[in-house]
């Protein structure tokens, strides 16, 4: 399969390209940051320019287009709402429309943050209530993609893994600080269902194999607090778990509002006989890839 991935230098995009390159012909679209000798072809492309986008599709001739590009820093979105709307809402709509026109399968990556987190255990049928500019623009992106390409997959996700700079995911935050014997805060009142990034990639590909379409929650069946997540990392990697201080998110000094209970139901995914792994298996895979020097391999692409 020929696969085109936008946001190919981001945590999900890069891991997706790297993970799939052995068995597929993978192309990564980059905004500005070049990658150093990745095992897949890359293109610098302005996704907001129709001519550039048409050229990218012509060069790559993808069977599958996965949009991982996003303005994902929540506090940056608060201070730059117009840019957040352009990247998180308008651009995915344009990508979806072109994919529909060309007959290309399309996956748009969204977020669990579209919910306010007051209730938890959300299904795809529950009404979103985004709290931040990031979440609002991601929800608008879902709506525009659905309007442009109803047969596309929209995946609401939460994930962790190793990134190009080594500082993008919550797992890296805990890992880096625990390794340095530094005290860190872990929020006890924020619940989530993260998947390890390669487990997310495998799940997305199973969704394509089963020709699914529409909106899906693509997260782990297990939930835990961000504090408990940090403790799991400390225990798995043999670090001092007492370095993690239990705190409330209200003590975090964060600009954008965070949803406290982002537990999502995956019954719709299970009905398609797709079963993402639980937290224990995800952590085992994360640890195994750490021992296999995946962080160093990923960072090497920065040159």
Can you describe this structure in just a few lines?
By secondary structure, the chain is an alpha/beta fold. It is built from eleven helices and 13 strands.
Overview of the molecule:
It is a single chain. This protein is an alpha/beta fold and 303 residues long. It has a single domain, classed as 3-Layer(aba) Sandwich (Rossmann fold). The protein is built from eleven helices and 13 strands. The strands form four sheets. A seven-stranded parallel beta sheet has the order 3-2-1-4-5-6-11, sandwiched between helices. The longest helix is centred in the N-terminal third of the chain and has 22 residues, at 81-102.
**If you average the pLDDT, what whole number results?**
95
The CATH architecture is 3-Layer(aba) Sandwich
Level of helix content?
A: 40-55%
Q: Tell me the name of the CATH homologous superfamily.
A: NAD(P)-binding Rossmann-like Domain
Structural class: alpha/beta
Number of strands: 13
Quaternary structure state of the chains depicted: single chain
Q: Structurally, how many domains make up the residues?
A: 1
Spans of at least 5 consecutive residues whose pLDDT stays below 50 are none
How large is the count of helical segments?
11
Topology, element by element:
Elements: E1 2-6, H1 11-20, E2 25-30, E3 41-44, H2 50-60, E4 64-67, H3 74-79, H4 81-102, E5 105-111, H5 133-148, E6 153-157, E7 159-160, H6 170-179, E8 184-187, E9 191-192, E10 195-196, H7 197-209, E11 214-218, E12 224-225, H8 226-237, E13 244-247, H9 267-271, H10 279-291, H11 294-300
Parallel strand pairs: 1-2, 1-4, 2-3, 4-5, 5-6, 6-11, 7-10, 8-13
Antiparallel strand pairs: 9-12
Helix pairs in contact: 4-5, 6-8
């Amino acid at each position: 399969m020929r696969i085109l991935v936008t946001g190919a230098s981001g945590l999900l995009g890069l891991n997706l390209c790297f993970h799939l390159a052995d068995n597929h012909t993978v192309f990564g679209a980059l905004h500005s940051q070049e990658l150093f000798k990745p095992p897949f072809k890359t293109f610098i492309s302005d996704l907001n320019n129709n001519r550039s986008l048409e050229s990218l599709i012509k060069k790559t001739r993808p069977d599958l287009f996965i949009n991982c590009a996003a303005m994902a820093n929540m506090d940056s979105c608060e201070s730059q709402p117009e840019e957040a709307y352009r990247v998180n809402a308008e651009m995915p709509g344009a990508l979806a429309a072109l994919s529909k026109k060309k007959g290309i399968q399309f996956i748009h990556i969204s977020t669990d943050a579209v919910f306010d987190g007051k209730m938890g255990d959300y299904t795809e049928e529950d009404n979103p209530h985004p709290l931040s500019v990031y979440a609002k623009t991601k929800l608008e992106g879902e709506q525009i993609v659905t309007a442009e390409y109803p047969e596309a997959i929209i995946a609401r996700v939460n994930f962790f893994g190793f990134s190009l700079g080594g500082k993008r995911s919550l797992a890296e935050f805990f890992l880096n600080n625990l390794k340095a014997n530094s005290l860190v805060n872990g929020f006890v009142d924020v619940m989530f269902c993260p998947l390890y990034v390669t487990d997310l990639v495998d799940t997305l590909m199973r969704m394509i194999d089963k020709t699914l379409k529409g909106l899906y929650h693509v997260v782990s069946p297990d939930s835990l607090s961000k504090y408990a997540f940090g403790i799991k990392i400390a225990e798995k990697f043999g670090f001092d778990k007492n370095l993690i201080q239990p705190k409330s998110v209200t003590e975090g000094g964060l600009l954008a509002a965070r949803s406290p209970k982002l537990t999502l139901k995956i019954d719709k995914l299970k009905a398609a006989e797709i079963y993402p792994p639980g937290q224990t298996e995800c952590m085992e895979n994360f640890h195994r890839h750490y021992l296999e020097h995946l962080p160093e391999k990923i960072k090497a692409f920065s040159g």
